[in-house]
Amino acid sequence: MSTSTSTTTPSSSSTPPSVKYPRPSWFKVWAHAARPHTLTASIAPVIVGHAITVSTLLLPTEQNTSFSTLHLPSITLAWAAFACLIQLGTNLHNDYADFVKGADDEHRVGQPRATQKGWLTPSQTAYASAFCVSLALAIGYPLCIVPSTTSTVSESKIDGLFLFIILSSAFNAVAYTGGPYPLGYIGLEHVSIGYSGLGDLFVLLYFGFVATIGLPYLVVMHAGLMGVEEEHDVSSSSSSTTVSLFFGNGGEEGILFLSFLASIPVGFLATAIIVVNNLRDRTTDVKAGKRTMAVRFGERFARCEYGLLVLFSYASLLMACFTYFTEDVYQMSRYWILLPIISFPIAMPQLRAVAFGGKDGAALNDHVGGTAKVQFLFCILLSIGLRKVYSGAITATTTTNI
């Protein structure tokens, strides 16, 4: 398909009002565009995934000696870097595309945007986004390569599911807001996840499920967990208790199912961040044709959605405590999973202002960041709690065997 350059080139967009607004320092300008303070939403789920991985697979037991050669730190750093670069690319592209599509204008009530203020041109933010996404792909692709179980390097293969995750994450980074660049080159300039009202679902899937499960899934694939599971199946009865402790029912299904359960509150709190953001911006979004959930279903729906997402995140801890960690080895340690409840007092002001209060417009700015802080603290405490649950269970198992 042939697409004219005038449709796709970022610089062809309307010129930002650079004369009207004084330009801050170079660092502050790019900080406004990239929004590095939002990276907690990418890092937090990786921290939870790392805690699950270490707790369930990499503890020094007889059954886990086959994992001694696994380079968990390098895989963790690579996955965290990929997630952060995808978010930076999404933020930068959003800065560019919301301006050229008219959502960020002089009536914007949210935090300043570099392109909208005229501090950067649309070309600069668009190309910076493309750089971040390209770097993310360069880091993410090697993670898709599953090492061979033999010494023959040529027997390594590509994991199709993870390759899809890498590629779809990169595509979604620019498709979240859409716009003429770079999607215009392939005739998809009208595609936009956020403008079609699917932003909440996107955040739940990619900043919840994918970001949390990604690292445990990588460990399962790179460590050859299926072979480990088969070896465990012929072990003694005492080893069976340990297998149940570390792997749940069905080897790799245990760690992945636990990761899925943990990703639910992580994803719900990440979604709550975008909900309060969209609640704040709904008036200007209507004018720009941005059909977010807050625009489609109204203010009351958005406030209820926010309240349910936050409250269910904490309720899920009780469900995990009393329905998942039910084996005898967890009898004493399972209550550590409730540790994130400590963060609830910090969540209360956010709930009062967003779900139960009347704050609106620019008054909600503090609660976008406030919700992000709740999610980050929740995830840190969840990670600690998971480590305590499993370390306590190991102690109980060792005591029983003695």
User: What percent of the residues sit in helical stretches (DSSP H or I)?
Assistant: 55-70%
Q: Could you give the order of strands across the largest sheet?
A: 1-2
Q: From the alpha-carbon coordinates, what is the Rg to the nearest angstrom?
A: 23 Å
Q: Count the beta strands.
A: 2
The helix-and-strand class reads: mainly alpha
Distance between the termini: 71 Å
Number of helical runs?
Answer: 15
SSE topology string: HHHHHHEEHHHHHHHHH
Overall geometric form:
globular
| Proportion of residues in β-strands | under 5%
> Low-confidence stretches at least 5 residues in length (pLDDT < 50)?
1-7, 60-66, 226-251
Biggest pleated-sheet summary: 2 strands, antiparallel
Mean pLDDT across the residues is 82
